[in-house]
Amino acid sequence: MNTEKKEFRQRLDFYWQSLSAYSVVLIVYVLLRSTIESGSVTFDYHDPLLWLLGLFILIALVGLSFSAFRRRAVIVEKDRIIFKNRFGSKEYTANDIVSISLGRDGMVQVKNLYPMIRIKLNSRKRMLRLRPTFFHNPEELIESVKDLKKDLNS
User: Fold this and answer.
1) What whole-number distance in Å separates Cα of residue 7 and Cα of residue 89?
2) Strand ordering across the sheet containing 88-93
3) How confident is the model at residue 106 (pLDDT cuts 50, 70, 90)?
């Protein structure tokens, strides 16, 4: 049974991967498009593809910085679930939770390895959606939520 507090931090590897891939593509593109004249390397700064790749790198860098600054986390305890970030936290106790369902995401047409967690609350019309793949240790997060669901039903 889930008796201790388990914290799951948001994964940032998607941002790192996209930032590195765009950077490598930009470097290769600059090397292919540059010319060597009289001992110096020159390239056209007005190339639209160069600006587009630079914009992608900037967007990935801003996204990584913002997500790392927010430090989002989900804490699952025996009788509550807490959504936490740098600026505060939102706690939902067993009395606030009507139901927890684990199922597939209907909006995504690809086969998901992990189910999406939907939490129905007394205070909200819409369900809270929690995607375990956005956090470290998604298997353990799912098991912790299943334990919380068992405690709610009993």
Assistant:
1) 13
2) 6-9, 73-76, 80-85, 88-93
3) low
